[in-house]
Amino acid sequence: MSILVFVESAEGQIKKTSLEAVAYAHALGSPVTAIALGAVDQGALEALGKYGAQKVLHASDARLNEGVIQAYTSVLVKAMQDENADILVLANSSLGTPVAARVAIKTGASLATNVTDLPETSSGFVVKRSIYTGKAFAKVELKNQKKVIALKKNAAEAKEVGSNVTVTPYAVTLSDADFAVKILSSEKATGEVLLPEANIVVSGGRGMKGAEHWGILEELAKTLHAATGCSKPVSDMGWRPHHEHVGQTGVKVAPQLYIAVGISGAIQHLAGVNSSKYIVVINKDADAPFFKAADYGIVGDAFDVVPKLTEALKAAK
Amino acid sequence: MKILVCITHVPDTTSKINFTDNNTKFDPTGVQFIIGPYDDYALARAIEIKEANAGTTVTVLNVGTADTEPTIRKALAIGADDAVRVNAEPTDSLFVATQIAEHAKSVGYDLILMGRESIDYNSGVVHGIVGELLGMPSVSPVMKLDIEGTKAKLAREIEGGKEYVEVSLPFVAGCQEPIAEWKIPNMRGIMSARTKPLKVVEPKAVDSGVKLQQFELPPPKGAVKMIAADNVAELVSLLKNEAKVI
């Protein structure tokens, strides 16, 4: 028996959430095989060994350079058979989650997404998942021999436990049906820190008073190597793109540090940030409800506090 | 064209979540239930497509007990033609998806829409499972959907951007904003919803391979530490030495 981990890449590098998936699988104990699809840097694949993979498969077929859900499903189902894997571990994402759904049906596996912790195995195989948009958890027993586990960010810590491994090419057979959904084009922010992956997030709300004032937040984000986010009204008004909207109906983030500037803290926004480890709130309204959910708070004018904070951070480096 | 919109009946986004029975049951006391916000976007887009294409019908489906009927009636008031309620607690994704697939097989829909995820269990997999069970493609999360003859062009949100895809009908889509503007029922809609057909069917048994053991609430948050606006250096020091996050 082995554990298969599907690792996702962006711009040739393995995503951090996928390294966490490898670490999670490693902690489960069985030999870990990682599989990457499409174009990925050779060095990045070899380095998966450091995070706990004993074996790395690479399906480099160019048709897999884009994340086609059904094609990826077919490859992973076959790889589970070939590797005699009972468990597939992957990271929740716009690709990973739908792939997990389809693989689970094709293999007759018990399925859990949004998993936040390693399983308890004293009686059965019980995982903890985040529900009610971070407001609660559910402990769920996965009863079938085969299991598909999709992880929420920070379910395991990616750390170096081994050394580089050799990468084995993995040949795939794909059908036309695998490409029923045809990807025409994509728009992707490049070179920036992606919001769902970021360790630090700097977010702005209506208190920023307009798209033209985002420069001070971007400067703060750059200093912290952080991603930028925003509240729903901000993306609704078109000040920031939709993929930066953090909240109940937007991106749910789980960074080490979330800095909220000029966001009052509506419960729908809190639902998107309640998995953050530390929260800093900067708001000129001392009664803003966000302060109740914060670890550190500053009552003050964003246009005064934020540039000073950026300077202080630069000086502390 | 026949469109199926699957809706969830979930606590309002402002609800405080509590459990009873030794943390094994959701406590509905004082909770307002709504159509899942993502499902509401799917419904609104379905109604727009119906309005633009004569002869199109929109059916809503909910897997739930009789308690969910006011939520279903609201979807009818917004403009769906008829409704199906599968009479069961929606216990897990495979169970719900199986009920949707069984109904869809019996009717034959051109388009099956739902929200990207329910806001109670947040699994985000029902559209994918329905697609797999019906042998159809599925796309999620969809932020734009245009029907062009027997094909559709969609925009899907991906991490840090968008992807534009094309797919032939029939298919399944998990929807999110800004696919359409939420619709508010008008008086005429509310009146006509009372007499629109709402069929109740019994569920198919499913061995879903998962079993809920217990719910858990996150530990309470400690008190906030306030820092003076003219002392940002203290914040930097706390982040560095106390929180150790920078």
From TrEMBL, chain A:
Electron transfer flavoprotein alpha/beta-subunit N-terminal domain segment(s): 3-183
Chloroplast found in the keyword field: no
Keyword vocabulary terms for this entry: Electron transport, Transport
Alphabetized Pfam families for the sequence: ETF, ETF_alpha
Gene3D superfamilies per UniProt: HUPs, TPP-binding domain
InterPro entries in the record: DHS-like_NAD/FAD-binding_dom (IPR029035), ETF_a/b_N (IPR014730), ETF_a/FixB (IPR001308), ETF_asu_C (IPR014731), Rossmann-like_a/b/a_fold (IPR014729)
Family: Belongs to the ETF alpha-subunit/FixB family.
UniProt name for this protein: Electron transfer flavoprotein subunit alpha/FixB family protein
UniProtKB/TrEMBL annotation, chain B:
Domain Electron transfer flavoprotein alpha/beta-subunit N-terminal: 23-210
Keyword annotations of the record: Electron transport, Transport
Gene3D superfamilies with a match to the protein in the record: HUPs (3.40.50.620)
UniProt keyword Electron transport present: yes
Superkingdom to which the source organism belongs: Bacteria
Entry annotated with the keyword Electron transport: yes
Leader sequence residues: none
Pfam families: ETF
PANTHER family the UniProt entry points to: ELECTRON TRANSFER FLAVOPROTEIN BETA-SUBUNIT, ELECTRON TRANSFER FLAVOPROTEIN SUBUNIT BETA
Family: Belongs to the ETF beta-subunit/FixA family.
Protein name from the UniProt record: Electron transfer flavoprotein subunit beta
Organism: Ohtaekwangia kribbensis
